[in-house]
TrEMBL record:
Record family assignment: To bacterial alkanal monooxygenase alpha and beta chains.
Domain Luciferase-like: start-end pairs: 8-268
Membrane-spanning residues: none
Any single Pfam family the record assigns to this protein: Bac_luciferase
Organism expressing this protein natively: Moheibacter stercoris
Gene3D superfamilies: Luciferase-like domain
PANTHER family with a match to the protein in the record: LUCIFERASE-LIKE MONOOXYGENASE
NCBIfam families: oxido_grp_1
Protein name: Luciferase family oxidoreductase group 1
Amino acid sequence: MSKEIRYSILDLATVLEGDTYTQTFEKSVLSAQAAEKFGYERYWFSEHHNMPSVISAATSLLIGHVAQQTQSIRVGSGGIMLPNHTTLSIAEQFGTLDAMFPNRIDLGLGRAPGTDPLTASVLRRGDENFNYNFEYHIQELLRYFSTENANAKVRAFPGEGANVPLYILGSSTDSAYLAAKLGMPYAFAGHFAPGQFRQAFEIYQSRFTPSKFLDKPYSMLCVSVFAAETEDEAQYISLSHYQAIVNLLLDQRAPLVHPENTNLEDMSEMLYQRVMQMTALSLIGDKEILKSKISQLIQDLNLDEIMVYSNIYDFESKLKSYEITSQVFKEFNQNFD
C-alpha cells in the first residue's frame, strides 16, 4: 500500500428473526464496542423508514446512544437523508451530539428518500421534492454550523460553531460531481448499488476542487464483507444477506433469517441477475482471500477508506468477521509503516 487505509463500519440496525427492537439496539452497541477494540475508525448508521427489518429511522438518537457507550471511535450517519429534514433541525441535532461527544461525530449526507415514495411524502409533509436542490441545502446546513451565521435571524443552538465533518454520500455518479465541486469527502454505497462505483470515483478524483475541508480527494467505498476462518464458512454466513436481498426485491421485508432458513435455490433467472448486480461488491472469504480482494479495490480506485457492511445473522460470527477484516487492514497499514 502507498498510504495508510482507514476502515470503518456501516450499521443498519437490522432486526434478526427472533430478536426484539431492544435486542437489536443492544447488538449495535456491542458491535460498536468491538469495532473500537479492533481499531475501526468510525461507526455509522444509515437512515431508513417504513422497513420492519431495518430500524435505524431515528438515526441521530442511535448515534448518541452508541457514542455514549464507546470511548473514542467516531460515530455518525451514513447517511442522513437530507430531503427528509429541515437543515436547521439537522444542525441542531448534530450540534447537540458534538457538544455531548466532542470531535467524535460525523455527518454523512444523502439525497435519496431512504424509503418508498409514499413514506417519503409523509416525511416531507406532502412535498415530493422531485427537484430537490442538494447543493443548496448543504450550503444552508454549513451556514447554520458556521460562526459567520451569528448575525442571522435564524440560528442553530447548539450547532453554531460545532465541529461536525460533512461527507457526501452517493450511489450513482451525480453526487460524485457535487462532492468534487464542494471539495468534500465522498462515500459510495457499493454495498447495495455497485453499478457505477468506478465511474463515480474517477469523476470525483479527476474533478476535485481543493477547499477549506480538504486539499485533496478523500474517497470512501462501502462494501459488504463476510469474513471467516474458512471460505466455506464465509459463504455460509453470507446466505442470510442474500436472502435479505431477495426479500427486498420481492417486497417481502422480513427480519434477517438464519442461514439454515434461507431459500435461494428457486430464483428465476431475472431475479438471480438482479441479486448478482446488487451484490457485486460483496467480499466473501477467509483472511487471505479478503486481503487480495481489498488490496485490488484500494489500488484500482485509489481509496482512502473502506466501510464494511456485514449483514450476518449469528452475532459471534459477525464479530469474528469484523475481527478478521480488521486484521487485514492492520497488515496493510503495518506494511505502509
